[in-house]
């Protein structure tokens, strides 16, 4: 076996060994959230809604992706983002949802954004 083959084999083995760890951590925490900026993020979480008698229950996975809305920036500096939510349910039913909301830059040294209402 060459050096390159050993390195590739080791990388594949590490990948295979980390998958069960990731699954266990996901089951314990119930969600995985990764941010790519102050507003843009992706989130994967477990849905476990138990309804009472006569109410609908749901179980499965949900994924949401928040992306900045293309377009000119508002004069007051507001930034708008659209969030898309998709469901993969094995119990119950839900249609994909999307919504848009705007954020106002927070003044001061800390920075960040505060909610500023829905997109117009």
Topology:
Blueprint (H helix, E strand, L loop, with lengths): L2 H27 L1 E5 L5 E9 L8 E11 L10 E13 L5 E9 L7 E6 L2
Overview of this structure, please?
The protein is α+β, with helices and mostly antiparallel strands. The protein folds into two domains: 1-30; 36-118, no CATH class. Helices cover 22% and strands 44% of the residues. The protein has one helix and six strands, in the order αββββββ. The protein has a six-stranded antiparallel β-sheet with strand order 1-2-3-4-5-6. It is flat and about 65 Å long.
Order of helices and strands: HEEEEEE
Count all strands and give the number: 6
| Beta-strand residue percentage | 35-45%
Low-confidence stretches: none
| Helix content estimate | 10-25%
Instruction: For the largest sheet, list the strands in their spatial order.
Output: 1-2-3-4-5-6
Q: End-to-end span in angstroms?
A: 62 Å
Shape: flat
Counting DSSP H or I runs of 4 or more residues, the number of helices is 1
Mean pLDDT metric: 86
């Amino acid at each position: 076996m060459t050096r390159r083959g050993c390195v590739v084999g080791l990388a594949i083995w590490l990948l295979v060994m980390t998958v069960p760890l990731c699954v266990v951590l996901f089951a314990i925490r119930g969600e995985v959230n990764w941010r790519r900026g102050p507003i843009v993020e992706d989130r994967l979480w477990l849905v476990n809604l138990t309804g009472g008698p006569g109410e609908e229950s749901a179980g499965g996975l949900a994924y949401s992706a928040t992306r900045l809305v293309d377009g000119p920036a508002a004069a007051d500096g507001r930034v708008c983002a659209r969030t898309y939510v998709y469901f993969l349910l094995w119990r119950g039913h839900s249609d994909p949802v999307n919504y848009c909301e705007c954020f106002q830059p927070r003044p001061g040294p800390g920075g960040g954004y505060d909610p500023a209402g829905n997109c117009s």
